[in-house]
Amino acid sequence: MKWIDFEKPNTVEDAVKLLSDSGGNARAMAGGTDLIVMLRVGHPRVNPDVVVDIKSIPELNELSYDANKGLTVGAAVECYKIYGDDNVNSHFSALNDSATLIGGTQIQGRASFGGNLCNAAPSGDSIPNMIAHRAVATITGPSGTREVPVEDICTGPGQTSIESDELLISINFPSNGAGFGANYIRFIPRNEMDIAVAGVGASVTIEDGKFTSARVSLASVAPTPLLVEEAGEALVGQPVSEGAIQKAADLAKAAAKPISDMRGTADYRKHLCDVLTRRALTTAVERAQGAS
Ligand SMILES: Cc1cc2nc3c(=O)[nH]c(=O)nc-3n(C[C@H](O)[C@H](O)[C@H](O)COP(=O)(O)OP(=O)(O)OC[C@H]3O[C@@H](n4cnc5c(N)ncnc54)[C@H](O)[C@@H]3O)c2cc1C
């Protein structure tokens, strides 16, 4: 293993300066549950001269809720803090579907949604859930701060639209009105410490028995997590019914572009998109209706 400098700045400004001064050869580190593994195995995509530990920066540890602004999850907030948070449990409980299944208890003590997003694995278990919740990422670099919908962050396996001198600061979830429900589920052959063969995040808003908004997002069936806009649009205006949900599931299956690998064939993954979309939407509806 080569020599790597380690820096632990206390401000966003200092962290961004370290990233930009390195000329693209620095990596931010939140929990390190992806980064350290990649460094240890000498992953060709991860070969930094400097690791910038971001866990001492206050903005990246923010976990706050405001009825107008929604939920702010700092980029370094660990999964255990998410599922232990009263505001998350009261207003965004479906985020716990992801926070409780990323790794096991030890991993959840370090791993963050921010790291999951920046790692940009097609199988990242928090990403479809964030997309289903219409989350927006706040990113700061030398030229300022910008906001990007989460569905526009991942550009390929391990690649993002976040520049090498930029830092993800937080992920912001808009407040949901009455009648909102969401769910994330994945299929894995064994519990914990495994990579999703397929995963689905879904959200719905229901008023007077009809869908007024809906989103479906898929994991592990394309080079990036996918927002299947047509699946959500097919539900809007429809009365809640198994038929409407099945139509959305058919559209999600059609949108999937999976590969075959040791975890499953492309056909199997397509089939899973149908089954998991149906189940995730059904649970989202039940939650929206206060049934679970
Ligand atoms: C045993 C084990 C089990 C796992 N199980 C799962 C699982 O079930 N589901 C799943 O999705 N993942 C799983 N993972 C992968 C990993 O735990 C998650 O992806 C986790 O969310 C990563 O978060 P982190 O804070 O540790 O990220 P880090 O490892 O710190 O960072 C990940 C990447 O993001 C970059 N980065 C981090 N923060 C920022 C930032 N603020 N701005 C810019 N770039 C940043 C880093 O440079 C790095 O490239 C597992 C890992 C292990 C070791």
Features of the shown structure:
globular; Uridine Diphospho-n-acetylenolpyruvylglucosamine Reductase, domain 3; binds flavin-adenine dinucleotide; 2 domains; about 25% strand; five-stranded antiparallel sheet; about 290 residues; alpha+beta; Enolase-like, domain 1
Give a written overview of the molecule:
With 292 residues, the protein is an alpha+beta fold. The protein is 32% helix and 25% strand. It has 11 helices and 14 strands. The protein has a 5-stranded antiparallel beta sheet with strand order 4-5-10-6-7. It has a 4-stranded antiparallel beta sheet with strand order 11-12-13-14. Strand 2, helix 2 and strand 3 form a beta-alpha-beta unit. It starts with a strand and ends with a helix. The mean pLDDT is 96. The structure holds flavin-adenine dinucleotide. Flavin-adenine dinucleotide binds next to strand 2, helix 2, helix 7 and strand 10.
Can I get a quick summary?
The chain has 292 residues and is of the alpha+beta class.
